[in-house]
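Appendix B. Raw example, untouched.
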Amino acid sequence: MLDRRLEQVSKRHLELGEVLSSGRGLTGDEVAKLSKEYAELTPLARAIEAYRKIADEAKDLAALADDPASDTEMRKLASAELEEIKARLPALEHELKLLLLPKDAADEKNAILEVRAGTGGEEAALFAGDLLRMYQRYAEKRGWRFELMSLSETGIGGTKEAIATIGGKGAYARLKFESGVHRVQRVPVTEAGGRIHTSAATVAVLPEVEEVDIKIDEKDLRIDVFRSSGPGGQSVNTTDSAVRITHLPTGLVVSQQDEKSQHKNKAKALKVLRARLYERERQARDAERSAQRREQVGSGDRSERIRTYNFPQNRVTDHRINLTLYSLDQVLNGEGLDGLIDALITDDQSRLLAEQA
C-alpha cells in the first residue's frame, strides 16, 4: 500500500513539473494553484527518491552478499554494509509516512488567540494575564508577529478577556494544541493565609481566515454601534465607535471597541467572527469523522481541562499526553513551551499514523 502511494506521489510531482515547465494553456490562477501543489509535494518527492535509492542499494548489497561467485571478503563487506542500511530504512520509512499524512488545511494560516479568565475570580484573571504574556513571549521567540486586538483588564492588572492575532510560519499549526482549559494551582497575591488556590483560564486558538475562505452574508448580520467604555463603565469615547456584530443563524456575537474608528472596529470584529465560524465548521466536520473513535481519544472539546500549572512544585502537566515538566518558570517565559507543543505534535502524528494503518 505504501509503495503504491509513493508511486502516485512521484508520478503526480513529475506531471506537475512538466505542465508548469511548458505553461501552455494555463491561466494565472491555474499556475498559482499548480505551483502551490508542486511546492507542497517537492519535499515528499525528494524523500521518496532518497528512500528508493537506499532501498535499491540494499537490494544490490543483498544480492552481492548471497552471490557464491563473489569472494568471501567482498561478501562480508556487503553483509556489513547491508546491516547498516537496514538500520536506516525504518527511520526513512517513518519520515515518509509522516509526510504522507493528510494536512490540516488551516496549518499554514495565522492564528487568532483568545484568552479568558475562568473560575477563580481575580486570581483567574491574573493567571489569564500570565498566559497572554506567555504566548506573546513565545511568539517573539519564534519571530512571529503578535498584535493585540482587544483587551479587557481588571483593576489590579488581571485580564478578563484578550484577543490577539499571531502571524508567522507555523503559527496556527503549533498553537492549535493550546485550546482548552488551563488550570493554575498557587498561593494568590491576595491570599493572606498562604493557602493554595485553584483557578482556571480558557484559551481558544482559531485559524485566521480571509473572506475567500468563508462567506458571510450581510443579511445574516445584525450590527449595533455604541460608545466605548473603559474600566468601571466610564465613557472613553464621545462617539458611537464601538461595534457589536451578531451572526443571526448561529447566534455568535463579537464586540470590538479598542479602535476610535467605527470602521476599524467593524473590520476587526468581522475578522474574529470569520475565524469563529470557520472553526465551528471545522469542528462539525471533525466530530463527524471521529465519532467512531471518540471513546478512545476523548471528545477534544474545549471545556476539557488540558493542562495544570502548579507553582509550589514548579510543575506543568499536560493531561492529554500525561506529560509533566518541572520547568514551569521556563514555560511561562515562552522558552519551555516548545517541549510541550513538540510532544503534542508527536502524539497527534502517532494517532494519525494509527488511523492510516
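End of appendix B.
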